[in-house]
Structure prediction request, 96 residues.
Amino acid sequence: MGRKQSIVQRTPGCFLCGKEPTEEHHVFFGIANRKLSDQYGLTVRLCPEHHRGRKGVHQNREIDLELKKYGQMCFERTYPELSFREIFGRMYKEVT
Prediction:
């Protein structure tokens, strides 16, 4: 299965601040999770500061975790027949 349009972000600009230009960010990154993020549309656009900078998801664990929780919520809403835990191997938010 190939890359799917984002189920997390529907608007242009940085997902966190709205600024341009942006870079693609896989909500769940790493070798296996990057492919799963592509497959299930779990990507967002981030400005360079929010992607790679000191305020970015790769440097700020709190922002990274909030984005993962939101990504999990989007996944569960979009794919209610699938188990997030079985596919990604863990949960980032409590099931509601």
User: Anything to note?
Assistant: The helical segments are 31-40, 48-52, 61-78, 84-88.
